[in-house]
């Protein structure tokens, strides 16, 4: 339950997307938070990843440190993520881990770009925190939703396909979730 010291570096891509990066080699893993959250929700789990993964946790526009946009289109976000992956020189098809509503972006990305795997976790709306250890609950606080997302796709999200699906599996057991990702080579 005590993550390794972070090997995280923080960046901004073309003044569009703020992101954190762990590692320099290995399978790229793109970590997408749900609406109302930010990239910090991935910190406990990403700190547990080994050196065989390059993890990139992105703040969606209007979240965390990414600037807001007038409108956030799912297709545009998928394209922005593809440009980010290309700009970072990540030459292998990424694994996308999408929390809650970010499953829409991950699905569009996978439909248009080479993708190793998409894993969806979480819920639609504020998640249940029972089972999330108290030190990690701070990473699961939902904030206000920017207006730019008002016209996002409505309806059911893809069901979680993590074997131990809960609202925040990456916070309930960061080391276990990291171990799962380390098997996706």
TrEMBL record:
GO terms for cellular component: membrane. Residues 29-170 form the AB hydrolase-1 domain. GO terms for molecular function: monoacylglycerol lipase activity. PANTHER family: MONOACYLGLYCEROL LIPASE (PTHR43798), MONOACYLGLYCEROL LIPASE ABHD6 (PTHR43798:SF5). Gene3D superfamilies: alpha/beta hydrolase. Keywords: Hydrolase. InterPro entries: AB_hydrolase_1, AB_hydrolase_fold, AB_hydrolase_sf. This is Alpha/beta hydrolase family protein. One of its GO terms (biological process) is acylglycerol catabolic process.
């Amino acid at each position: 339950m005590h993550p390794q010291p972070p090997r995280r570096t923080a960046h901004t891509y073309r003044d569009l997307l703020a992101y954190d990066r762990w590692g320099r080699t290995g399978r790229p893993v793109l970590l997408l938070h749900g609406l109302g959250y930010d990239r910090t929700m991935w910190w406990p789990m990403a700190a547990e990843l080994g050196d065989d993964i390059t993890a990139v946790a992105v703040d969606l526009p209007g979240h965390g440190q990414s600037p807001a946009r007038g409108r956030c289109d799912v297709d545009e976000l998928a394209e922005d993520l593809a440009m980010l992956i290309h700009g970072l020189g990540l030459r292998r098809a990424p694994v996308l881990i999408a929390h809650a509503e970010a499953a829409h972006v991950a699905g569009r990305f996978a439909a248009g770009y080479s993708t190793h795997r998409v894993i969806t976790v979480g819920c639609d709306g504020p998640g249940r925190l029972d089972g999330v250890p108290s030190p990690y609950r701070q990473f699961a606080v939902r904030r206000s939703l920017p207006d730019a997302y008002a016209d996002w796709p409505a309806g059911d999200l893809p069901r979680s396909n993590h074997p131990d699906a809960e609202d925040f599996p990456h916070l309930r057991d960061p080391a276990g979730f990291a171990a799962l990702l380390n098997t996706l080579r």
